[in-house]
Amino acid sequence: MSVPSPGDVLDTFKAHARIIHDRDDDLITDVYLPAAIGKLKAVTDLEDTDDWTGQPLLVMFRLAAAMYESREVNIDMAPMIPEIVSLWKPSA
Predict the structure, then answer these.
(1) Tens of pLDDT along 2-21?
(2) Which long-range contacts (CB under 8 A, 24 or more apart) does 26-33 make?
(3) Higher-confidence position of 87 and 35
(4) DSSP 8-class letter at 14
């Protein structure tokens, strides 16, 4: 799966973040998930065409969940550095 569409992973993200209501669906799909994707692409060498299943998707969900909980997109990513570093692809 290439970079996920926020609308396609909304239900999976909500289950991951334990969100049981629909009040913030637009906020999640329009702000938090795209911001998490953008941050991951900015600090790793992940591209739209790479496989975003598994670890990349989980780290994206953790970033978006942290943003959702704090209600802001500028979050401290330091606690997630080991997970983010694990996403770098080895150079060929």
Answers:
(1) 777 888 889 999 998 999 99
(2) 27/68, 28/64, 28/68, 30/6, 31/67, 31/73, 32/64, 32/67, 32/68, 32/73, 33/4, 33/6, 33/9, 33/60, 33/64
(3) 35
(4) H
In this structure, are residues 59 and 84 in contact, taking their beta carbons and an 8 Å threshold? yes
pLDDT at residue number 92 = 47
For residues 40 and 60, is the Cβ–Cβ distance under 8 A?
Answer: yes
**pLDDT (average), residues 56-67:** 88
How far does CA 66 lie from the centroid of its chain? 10
Q: Are 36 and 60 in contact (CB under 8 A)?
A: yes
Question: pTM (2 decimals)?
Answer: 0.80
